[in-house]
Amino acid sequence: MTTYAALLRGINVGGSRKLPMADLRTLLAGLGHTGVRTYLQSGQAVFTAGHGDEESLAAELTRAIEERFGFTADVLVRDHAYLRAVAEACPFPAAGLEARQLHVTYFSAPVGPERFAEIDQAAFLPEEFRLGDRALYLYAPDGLGRSRLAEALSRPRVTKGLIATTRNWNTVVKLVELTGP
């Protein structure tokens, strides 16, 4: 049995694509998963599965959401070991920063520096980003909502062909905790 976090992108934002967390918990339990919990309203669920891998579990949950709620939600599933490794590999001094200043974007596939070659990092200083394992770390001293770099990083030509979903540092750390032994 492995414990996973499901990261859903773009739900419960504005007035559309509503997915109550109680319904998400019920849906995951109905798929045969145990230990189901949710975190916040923005689309994080933790569950234990005795079958499948990250990709098949994400595909299963994506199909179930579409069948039950009538819309498609991008879903990434990551296990505890991966989430812990991402947190431990943070290239920024997380302990000395406010959670709103540090974010991780999780990607559905590995990304290389060529995907970001058009972004002149010096033009966005003091904001910075670094690449990790299927992840991008973003330091935005004024927060994500005011970050010009975050906007540049989310352009369709940069994220083309990927599922990408961003979480603040508090959520990154909490998901490690919730999926842990």
Automatic annotation (TrEMBL):
Task: Return the Gene3D superfamilies for the record.
Answer: SP0830-like domains (3.30.70.1280)
Residues in coiled coil: none
Q: Name one Pfam family in it.
A: DUF1697
Annotated protein name in UniProt: DUF1697 domain-containing protein
